[in-house]
Request: fold
Amino acid sequence: MQFVSFFRSETPRLGVLADDGVIDLAAAQPQVPPDLVNALASGVDLLAAAKAAIAANATRLPLDGIRYAPVVPRPGKIICLGLNYYDHAKEGGREKPDYPWFFFRGATSLIAHGEAGIRPRVSERFDYEAELAVVIGKRARHLTQDNALDCVFGYSCFNDMSVRDYQKKTPQWTIGKNFDGTGGLGPVLVSADALPAGAIGLRIQSRLNGTVMQDANTSDMIWSVAETIALLTECLTLEPGDVIAMGTPAGVGQARTPPVWMKNGDTISIEIERIGLLSNPIRDEA
Reply:
């Protein structure tokens, strides 16, 4: 099943894809809260509600007429992994870390499919990072690798756009990863039951103006989704709607000779096999 978040009267709504359109799930199934985070937190069976709405031939909105929101519009937590692909660690001059390099993003950094990524006026070193996004479906603490995937609702595409000079100003990467308009998330959320366990074995690419820049497979990750969730829940509670961004493979702009930085007028696209295509134009900050 494929879900989207989109705007109606400037309010994010949860939709399910059906044929060539979108069903407003709360409008078709009144027991479903209108936004994804509240829908997940309520414990309502979203898959059953979506199937019922499709079977009832609920009203479809034209897909090409909607304005997307980030697929999770306001996650409580966005937890990101650095250096989670062997080749990316190597191109950055590092060995395999002994423990994941976790950092947080804020919800104010997120943008939707089709929305402009903003190159900040304080830097020209604006980079792309294709990543698998994991969306948590239920509260989780102290999970093991054997049961960690039970808390996953689904998967999406993420672009961890990074302001590299600011990222390197401190030992922690947070400041370079939280500029407004730099976290692409979407366009769809594919339910976990529709993909291999842990979304393993899927091709992941970034393309800048149509040129392939990164081309890898989620099997190349150092820490799998299950391992990552088990490690995180040793420390903290994952809640419905939290997002985990699983790191990026080799081919980022800063590692190239000469470096490749995104600029005004560019288009950056992230595609993950069986999940979707996230595309964002790049604009200079006003």
Observations:
- Residues 2-65 form one domain.
- The mean pLDDT is 96.
- The chain is about 15% helix and 35% strand.
- The chain has two domains: 2-65, 78-284.
